[in-house]
## 1
Amino acid sequence: MTAAKTAPLRRYPVLIGGEWRDLADRPQIASWNPATGEPLYSVPDCSAADVDEAVAAAHSAFLGEDWQSAAPVARGAIVRAMADVVLENAELLAETEARDSGKVIAETRRFTAVCADYLRAFGEMADKITGDTFTPPQKGVTAFTRRVPVGVVAAIVPWNNPLWLLALKLGPAIAAGNAIVIKPSEIAAAPVIEFLRKVTEKVALPKGLINLVTGHGAPCGEALSSHPLVAKIAFTGGPETARHIVRNSAANLADVSLELGGKSPALVFDDANLDNAVASIVSGVFLGSAGQSCVASSRALVQRGIYPEFVRRITAAAAQLRVGDPMDAGAQLGPLATAAQLNRIETAVAQAVQRGGRLLLGGKRPEIAGGGWYYQPTILEIGSHDDALVQTEMFGPVLAILPFGDEAEAVALANASRFGLAAGIFTTNVGRVHRLTTRLRAGIQYVNCYRMGAPMAPIGGFGDSGKGREAGIDAVRDYTKTVTVWIDTNV
Ligand code: NAD
């Protein structure tokens, strides 16, 4: 047995009412290093009573005079200061995330910088939340709207990309004047906790404005999403969990935004720049997070004229990828985040092959020092678009390829999915670009590129990919409610 297995696990505290608390007497949930399969640390499985205390603390901070009277520009300064905290601790945060989630360090470094960019942008938006004025028909009467914060926000985030997905919620929530209770995933909570520790050391915050609880979906997540004082739930995760959240929100009638999964199509037409299409799709489905990305380009639909050449090129490109230890700066994809995820993908690929799918690349666990939950970049040619491998989010390094004949068939196949998060369009025909971007049911569409993003650009999907949008000024407005004020000037 190794020292790591025998030494007591580092136990992370939670943040409630401005205090870091070591909840040693709660059941502890171990988090595992996907590169070795060894435990890294533990977090408490918070009870409904812990959640209640955190929400009550947030509610009282929200109603506190300090926060109610804080100017928008002062709220923005807090969010910008959090961006500085990310940059000042960039290497710690990037390493923590790579070790915890299995995403490669090159990717977590990139996303740490992205996270700071988004927080800074949200900070800048704080004083740009405006209302409207009206001239109503009543004589001498004027009316205007004002946008006020919703109150307590519950931010529930998944294990893939935890810091950035938190920034997408924390930034607008605080910029718009709310208080927040954060629940990271029990699978990779460390980046969120390390970040919040640095925030509380560096940034002066009203007591209880930002709270952190940890735990499983039940009881912790359930208690949070159904809490009567929660006014908005900002959730990123899977569609089945989202359905629980929506049911829970019947208890508090909170606003709910859902950023869920995808099975995003990449449409490659005969006239496409093939090298660009191949590089973009490889990047979208394999690089950085081994396909554990909501926008993964995991469904390649390729026009028949170029199909054999596309298959040859993408198989050759993916075969060159370096699978390795997430802490290795040269690794292009790391392990899957959990052993369960690895088993699920292995089974799904084996079953697809039994149904007649043709394995073009991968389909095995590579030999990598340290053990770990690695899976090779895998490409399958699938005969039917209805096949489970084409319709199910794999959340792993698995690409399904299918041919299509004409544009109409490409659109029909692309839209034949419960999901609708992202789509890639690879063509040099500008008219086709305009036709497709109006017909594809996908909230994020990349033309001759993939995996683009910027703080002003909304993110979100259709159907099982969720509802509501994150990022951009409209998303900040979603953390407010409109109040209409009538003034009778005759009095
Ligand atoms: P998940 O749904 O299992 O968990 C997400 C969070 O919800 C975790 O914090 C979890 O503890 C919590 N949770 C679980 N059950 C709950 C319940 N009953 N009530 C309240 N909270 C509960 O998702 P995951 O496996 O952590 O993440 C992967 C999923 O997230 C994938 O489907 C992926 O596509 C999606 N995702 C979407 C986006 C996006 O922006 N659209 C981004 C990243 C990930």
## 2
Amino acid sequence: MLKPQATATRDLVNLDGTWRFALVQSDIEKEAPWSKPLPGTLDAPVPASYNDIFVDPAIHNHVGWVSYQRTVTVPRGWSQDRYFVRVSAATHRGRVYINDKLVAEHIGGYTPFDAEVTELVKPGESFRLTITVNNELTNVTIPPGIIEVKQNGQKSQRYFHDFYNYAGLARSVWLYSVPKAEYVQDVTVVTDVEGSTGVINYDIKTATPEASNSNSSSVHVVVVDEADKVVAEASGAKGSVKIPNATLWQPGAAYLYQFRAEIRQGGKVVDSYSVATGIRTIEVRDYEFLINGKPFYFTGFGRHEDTAIRGKGHDSAYMVHDFQLMHWIGANSFRTSHYPYAEEVMDFADRHGIVVIDETPAVGLNLAIDSGLFGKKLKHTWGPEYINDQTREAHADSIRELIARDKNHACVVLWSISNEPSSSEEGAREYFEPLVKLTRELDPSRPVCFVNVMFATYDKCLISDLFDVLCLNRYYGWYMHTGDLPTAEAAFEDELKGWVAKYKKPIVMTEYGADTMSGFRSYYNAPWSEDFQVAYYNMCHAVHDRFPEVVGEQVWNFADFQTAATHIFRVDGNKKGIFTRDRKPKAIAGVLRERWNAKLKELNEL
Ligand code: GCB
């Protein structure tokens, strides 16, 4: 799915700003918030999660629908166009109304959708745009959750993932146009390298909504380098173009060509769309992860889209600052834990040569963690009562939408289809096999992983052989052998030996970390102190360095982040950040900086 862009044949109007806002208090069909101006006096910023904007527990804790509303005018000049409202994310379910009419509904809180307006409002006219957003998570949504009704009749939301269920319109809303007669609907690029020649294999889909003169039109591609020089051209909707002496997209040294798909009619360009394309290869060979044929070592983070007040709201200042911090500390990669991030973030990673493990929102498919941590009776994850066939369909949709959105990003080197599912529980294999197959069909060009939870060790995990890379989250010294680093070290090393002996696959440590209160110092390395965090990471790194099969380390987490208030072992959120929530470094930051910059130097010298 293409991100809207302004070109000579397309326009783009940004609808961000403050919108009218109201909770839906009763039955949404009866209240019909779209049918009239919203009641009350609240305004909400877009993009932002709404939860922390207002000083009102009723809004913060609301479970159900909310409404956003504003007036939009269709530009006068759009009579030859089709036009759409594009919602970059409505978490977790969104409906779009043009005046009184429902024009789109979408489930899945972190991927975009469009609503066509063309037939409903003429150019130059205004309309009431209402977007209703629902934050409920059930056993058939991704991520899943459970809704309970309290004694007082109010709904409450439980979920099994460790980040706050921020909701609303956390990413931009747009109005955009495409040419009515024929336009570029989708572009897929897959790159390759032959000696010093870069190859872009492409597939362009066009749409001809009005049974039209498409016979007389043809598709062309033009590839332009960073100096704006045309370096290759070709004709046809499917094929490949070659770029002699291509500059490759490298981790830490990005280079992007503009791959322009054009529809031409009688020599005239009637539509064009450009995809920023980094030419690079990815390969998993034995236990190596190769980018452009060279062994790669992931340094960096599991992250969250999370800041004070905005929640998951996209913010360019935070984005640029976070990338600056990653550069400063020597991070060459991150994982979009635990959901697809804003498209702007993916574009930025492409531009700055940061490698991304791109993850679906399939997190919390695990009732064993909850039972294990709190000593509750073990409940089964896989089966009709919780994660069932319908959930798997929603999961499949989340994979389809992630790949449709992010397939052209050079930065994406690995798809992660789930974080910490209950992979050692009976039923996991039956659940995952078709999803792995689907991912490979949708994108044969990239390796696939899932992220393994600490209980599902090499002797218990039922699905690791289905994947290309072993991604392990391990908390030896924190959740296990808390504070006892010598015992933790021995246990961690033992487990890694088990994985290495059983699988000939690269291992990426996708999570390891310790909660740390910024400013708490201890002569005795007490857990929660900055000193313990340093000692903990030094222990883990000593173990990583004993295994050539470990090809990456992404610490948990980039910054402190908000979690559900019902997690009594969290005080105002998860504190495993290397940076605080407002991006101040903890003592560990300097230690990582030294280690990772040395690693990057080694990599560059290979
Ligand atoms: C995990 C989860 C992550 C949590 C983390 C923790 O294994 O993948 O979402 O935040 O542990 O800090 O407990």
